[in-house]
Structures are given as structure tokens and as C-alpha cells.
């Protein structure tokens, strides 16, 4: 997937030959790992430790950037963002038409799950987008704390919520933005944190700023909701997963007094931080699109994860 996108990257001279080199380097790295059971550590990242998905991701991204490739998914992200923006007002209207607060919350969460399908880092997700998969029926949730969260939603007033967003397009614009808008309506200050550098089709900080500005009106309103309490942050991350010990100083400061942290998407919310513990309430939400992750969790592909941890007191 990445090498094919790299081949069509018009911003890089001689992209077709470089993509072949990219493919061979990535393939060689995997063969080396499987045969030697060791992890090659570039000088710039002497982390040590086992070959987990964070370290593998760092090496992969370093190879891509060393060959001169930047945002090889930029075109498809821009296309998906434009489509989602055209549908945003209608999605918000449909949510607003739901008078029951609990049912409206459930619809907002379903929107996040639906958007999470657009994941070009997952071969299974790509098959769904191309229409090759027949597995679009609703899946049972491996971890489902939604009823607990819904009960707290009606009783609890979070002063600041930090949301680490995932993919561009429908997921962030039609899933996260309406959810964040609902929090703003409740008086919560919302921080949306996005990647510093591009990785697959994850939305970046500049793209997040750009798309929010396109959706605001001249008064700074997001379809009738004031956005003065909406902050956009650079997470300092450059991977489709996230190491929470390496986020930006900006995000560290903004999250220091948060009372709700939301890790959204398979990479951030499931693969790397599903069991992470926080000093405040936390929510991990995403769809399982890797068979290895589904097996580890004892579930199936396209299972939905909704894990809510409340900190008492």
C-alpha cells in the first residue's frame, strides 16, 4: 500500500524507482527481524527493547523519510476531507434531531466507529473501502463500557477533554468533530491533538487546523456552537500509533489538568494504549482491523472497542 502510493508521489523526483527501493528496504527489514530475532536500531533511535509496533513504526517512517518521501497519502486525505466537509452539516443536523440525550450520544459514537473504517494502514480496512469485504455487519464489542459512560455523560461535567485524533476524512470530520461539538455544548473545553508529521492517512496538525477553519462561520461558530473553548494541539507524534511518554510539551501542558482523555482509533486507542492508566477519566475507542489484534483480544475483525475507565474522586 505505502509503496504504491509512493510510486505516484509527484512531489518526489524519480518516485517509481525510489518506491522499489522503499519496498525492498522494508521487506529486508522484516526478513532480518524474522530470521535474526533482533531489532536493528538506527543511531537516531537507540531505544532498545523488543520489536514492538512503536519501534517498528519508527524505523519504517525513518526509511520513508530518508528516501525523500513526505506525505504520500496527501492526495487521498484531501479528497476524503473534502467529501466529509460536504456532509458535515447534514450529519450534525441528524444528531441534533435526536432529542433523547442517551440515544444522541450513541449515534455520535456510532459515527466515530463508522469513520474509523477509513484506515489505509489496514489491509482489511482497505478491502472494506473497495467493497471486497462482506463483513460489514455489526460486530459484538470485545470491551463495551458504553452504558457506564452514558450514565456518567448525563451526570458528569468534564471541564477539559483531550482527544487524540486518528484518521483524516470521515473519521475526524464526521465522527470526532460532532462528538467534540457536543462536548462544547456541555461547557467542556476540548483539545483536539493531531500528529506533527504525516503517517499513512492520519490527519496532521496543520490539516486539522485547516479543516476546522473551513467548518467555522464568520463568527467562529461550529453550526451554532461557540468554538472559543476548542483548542487544536500538535501532539508531537509522527506514527499511526502513539508513545505517550514522547508527546509534545504543548500537549503535556494542556493534558496536565484534563479530567477526560480520549484515545481514538485502533493504533492509539487499542494497539498501544488499551490498558494505559491515567490520573483522570479515560476513554479508548476504535475498531479492530488487524486479525492479530482481534486474536489477541479474543474477538473478530471489525469488533468495536469502547473502554471507559473512571477515576474515583
Automatic annotation (TrEMBL):
Entry keyword Manganese: yes
Q: Any idea which GO molecular function terms this record carries?
A: ATP binding; hydrolase activity; metal ion binding; pantothenate kinase activity
Keyword annotations of the record? Hydrolase, Manganese, Metal-binding, Nickel
Offer one example of a GO biological process linked to this entry.
coenzyme A biosynthetic process
Damage-control phosphatase ARMT1-like metal-binding domain location, by residue?
Answer: 43-304
Q: Please give the Pfam families that the UniProt record associates with this protein.
A: ARMT1-like_dom
User: What are its cofactors?
Assistant: Mn(2+); Ni(2+)
Assigned GO CC terms? cytosol; nucleus
Question: Signal sequence span per UniProt?
Answer: none
Say yes or no: keyword Secreted present: no
**Protein name, per record:** Damage-control phosphatase ARMT1-like metal-binding domain-containing protein
